[in-house]
Amino acid sequence: MLNKPQLFLDGLSMLAYLKLHGIALRYGWGVVEAQGQDALSVVTVAPYSSDWQPDMAKAQRIAAQTLAVGYGFIPRTQLSQQMGLEHNFSDDGYLRASANAWQQSSEPHVHLAGDMGGIRGGEAAMLSGRIAALSILMQRGVLSNEAALQRRQGYERKLASILRFRGAVDRYTARGAGQVELPKGDTVICRCEHTTRNDIERALSQGVQDMASLKMRTRVSMGDCQGRMCVGYCSDRLRQATGRKDVGWIRPRFPLDPIPFSAFPPSDQEVSQHD
After folding, report:
1. Domain boundaries, position 154
2. Does 113 share its domain with 181?
């Protein structure tokens, strides 16, 4: 953690803020159930084992009106998939766009920056953007190969430091194998299509072994959000069931994000603008 002292200090500052305001922190605990009639009223939490198995004998119920749950981040690759670029799977099983040392994709004139190539944080995203800019300047003859390489190496040293820090964070926050067992059978996994865990388990028992087949059998990811809420669980469960790292991914479709009708001007306003 001391590899990035400022980030480490920022984290300590956040913890101090929570403590100062009397907000309790429970390490090794997690949410196992949320209940309420028409609205959230009670959350059940329990201590987890190292592989995320909850100890329900020690579970506690807490009155609550708001619940926020996070199990990590997934690279957003919708645009890179639509462009037909090459992708691969990260160690945690999620799809990411492939890039070389110059941040070039499989299409030499398409450069990648940010988390679509893997979740590494904001500072790393900016550095990858600077490397991509160097590559573009080099391609256009604005920078010589030697000058661009020298600058890139400086950015890469900073990136290496970030990745060492990120590796420590990832190891500390890694999802345990028991995570996929947390939802009960009637828990809704795909909110858009109201697909439950029982539906997914039934499809697996019928021989489904990849994301595309699971989508066809259960309709997961066929709603407006295109799997943003359910793809993580579906990927984890498929990889657990098949023992494979590559179980496919959700294919995006346009529009990549739902567009409300309010985003479009009234027809009479559009006509007057053209007049």
Report:
1. 78-172
2. no
